[in-house]
Amino acid sequence: MDSLTNLIDGFGTALTFQHLLLAAVGVLLGTFIGVLPGIGPAMAVALLLPVTYGLDPTAAFIMFAGIYYGGMFGGSTTSILLNTPGETASVMTAIEGNQMAKQGRGAQALASAAIGHFIGAMIGTIGLVLLAPLIASLAVDIGAPDYFAIMVLAFIAVTSVLGKSRVRGFASLLIGLTIGLVGLDKLTGQSRLTFGSLELADGIDVVIVAVGLFAVGESLWIASRLRHDQGTPIPVGRPWLSRADLRRTWKPWLRGPLIGFPFGAIPAGGAEIPTFLSYVAEKNLSKHKDEWGKGAIEGVAGPESTASASASGTLVTMLSLGLPTTATAAVMLAAFQQYGIQPGPLLFEREPALVWGLIASLFVGTVLLLVLNLPLAPVWAKLLKVPRPYLYAGILFFASVGAYAVSGQVTDLIILYVIGVLGFAMRRYGLPVLPAIIGVILGPAAELQMRRALQISDGSLTGLVNTVFSVTVYVIVLVILAWPLIRRLTRKPTPSEPSEKEPVG
User: Fold this and answer.
1) Do residues 276 and 254 touch, judged by C-beta distance below 8 A?
2) Which residues form the DUF112 domain (predicted)?
3) pLDDT by residue (tens digit) across 349-369?
4) CA nearest 443: which of 272, 197, 327?
5) At what angle do helices 434-456 and 272-285 cross, to 10 degrees?
6) CA separation (Å) from 164 to 112, 152, 159, 484?
7) Who's near 444: CB < 8 A, 6+ residues apart?
8) What is the DSSP string of 48-66?
């Protein structure tokens, strides 16, 4: 009851004219910046920090919240239209969303994403209000073996459902894990795969890898095929979802927060893992399995709702424990400290107006995001009418700007295009790109958690399976790996399939 009373007071703070205006500006800025390949919400918040020096803390964080949600939706826009995620949380959306855009259903994919963001954010923010103390206490109890098990599940799940060959999926994962090894060992300080270069000592930024494999790799692939396939103009399509679309999306919209919010609240890396798991779940539950990989709308609705709910869950640990689990949360934590405020268990007592005003602004920003972006879906979809040479030249330009903005080093541009050529080669030889991204994002964290678990158990492998949670996750992993074999052994031959005893022909 106290939470609801405090939330009502928070709405009194968030619904003032100044704060509504700042929330709207944040949503618009976040969307526009999120659309640029490689420039996600974390960089947007970081770039706009100096702009807010003259604002009071409550106003500044209301604006940041709008940028957070707007940036996530902007990233999904380029994922759908250009197969170029603006941030890693939008990677899954590119798989089905871009195929829908190529079929002239880009506007429907964007509308599905916008509504999914709205529903996911609403349910996630309600969870933030009601369940923050419970989720925070559960997060504290999760140890290194559990983190490592979750990441192994993500590796296996993503390589098992993508592409026509598991071998190619694991090969792509291995490429990503290798890239993730570049830099200094976090525990020993030993250089790995740096080839004596000081610029590589800090490793290769995930943004550069994602933009290189997706944006640059896709641009090079399209350029290599322009002479052979000039392509036909892609129709924009209707801006609204049909009844058939709604029947297929409402369940993924509601299932997404059930996956996204808990994973966002535990310190396991933000929205990447839950969006992968949402994609896997929706593919397994779908009645239209023949459409997956060719533009299944459930593959947009589920991951987008999941990502939005995960963003709300991320704020649970950031506000209640002072523990950021995403890059954006880390920047927002720095912003809190800039104002002399330390997030943690006492934040709700010391700064109730700020915290509950921020939470209320999440509801307001979510509504503004839907109101502003749903009518803009057909406008964004018109990007597909831009001639492809100009469109992909623009993508390369903004990808280069985004990569250079990461650290201001020319080396990053060189790495960007080297990885872009690698992305082109992966497309040429049929290797799925996504497992490589997963390896880069989760590989270093998985290695760190594995080594911590082994140190605690004095090097014994039993240290990786000494909790009920980790054992449960490994059982799920074994089921995923064995499922194709089980299906092959238990499947009954259909009448159209000749038996071994019957001669063919």
Assistant:
1) no
2) 20-438
3) 777 778 888 888 888 888 888
4) 272
5) 120
6) 27, 21, 10, 13
7) 180, 181, 186, 203
8) HTGGGGGS-HHHHHHHHHH
